[in-house]
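Researcher: For the annotation table, I need structure tokens for Prolyl oligopeptidase family serine peptidase. Please keep the output clean. Sequence:
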Amino acid sequence: MPKPLGAEALRRVLGPTTPAAIGDIETLGERQCEGYLLRHVAYRVPSGRASVFVCIPGRLARPAPLVFCQHQHAGRFDLGKSEVVGLRGRADQRYAAELAQRGFVTIAPDAIGFEDRNWADGDNVGWFELSSRLVIGRTLLADLLQEVSLAIDYGASLPEADATRIGFIGHSYGGRMAIWAPAWDQRIQASVSNCGCIPYRESAAHDAGFQADFVVPGFARDYDIEDVLSAAPRCRYLLIAGDQDVWSRGAADIARALQDRGDRHATVRIRPGGHGFPITDRELAYGFIESALS
């Protein structure tokens, strides 16, 4: 019988990371947007150089909560942080910009392999990034989660951000990261996962499959998504699922499993429809984060 997936067990399962702190911070540019300042920064991380957008609301009376905004996947390795701040891509993905307009400081890095972190002219580099780690006993997910923590370190250092109030939001791939990140970094107090809660037991279907980022040797033998959620008991979760969405498959089972365990910190909302983040659900997500971080 495996031990419960607490913080220590999680890091053991995901494997080692290279000890790191952010360094060599550089501001690459700024622009004034409607209601907030958009800042592009870069800093050193173990796998290279992070490329990050920060949205800072205007006219703050006091430091504001910090929300990490994880971009989606969608097979678009040429696109990452620019979509969540509304510079490119789909309008329903601009949640970093919309949260900044509501008074939150938001931070949105490119994940490894996306946008400025893509070294193959927009081609899929995820399986290379995974396999080159697996052969030396590491996982891509551990490095991705470490970079989440490093981004939070940077965001929390800003004078406009309240380091005691930290949230997370993501859609699809970002929704999966929204489940894992609070288990890795206990500073995250509220997390919204939209259309990304599919458990490992459902992912083996041919119309689903596994993204390289979440391939962890042996994980599904002993654990599943409910265990990851249970590993972050101090975080309030909102999982939004579409009843016609492949990447939301299994949401009802997750809700039942959490209820059977007596876990009350995660709410699962299943709506009609497919894979998207419509304004009604984004408003629900923003209200949830505001309530949880107030």
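Researcher: And a one-line annotation?
Model: Residues 7-293 form a domain with the Rossmann fold fold (CATH 3.40.50.1820).
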